[in-house]
Structure formats: C-alpha cells, structure tokens
Amino acid sequence: MLNASSLQAVYDRSADVLYITRRREAAGRGVQDPNGIVWRYGGAGDVIGATVLDFGETWFDRRAQLAGEIARGFAISPSQAADMVDRAFDDHALGGERRERVR
Q: Would you state the pLDDT for residue 98?
C-alpha cells in the first residue's frame, strides 16, 4: 500500500477541480473514468495523479464514493482517502486554494 503522505492535493475553486499528485512527472497517458475522474499514468504505467472534475458540484453528497475511488486508484487506506476528501471539501467551503500533503 502506498504511503499517503506522498500525495499532494490542491483544490482550484475557480475551476471546481481537485488535483491529486503523487509525483511530478509528465503523464504518459490520462484516462477519464465514468465518474469524471481523470487518472494520470506515468511511463511505468503506475498512477501518478488524478484530476477530479466538478469536485464540489458532483461529489459533495458522494464523499464516501470519491474516497473509495481515490483509495483504490492510489492504493491508500480508505480512511486516509476520506481524510483527504474531507480536507478538500473544507477548503472548498472556505473558498481558498490550498496546497496540502495528505497525512
């Protein structure tokens, strides 16, 4: 299981997008899943990032589902993913843009 502290989450309020990054690297490819999450893959085929489109609008009432998707995609624990999602929604409510490492 991945150490969740290696993830960084940034919410862009003006675009209503949550960016989650494992490491800075040019993506070899990106694939949008049916939920509207764009998964970015590195050259070795591993997940290096995710872009959650329409974060507040789509996911506010579906936090648990989003946390599950993030946990599976990044191979982190569901509780770590839920904490990250909750902090991102806190930032959404405050209206700011904040960079934060997942704990």
A: 46
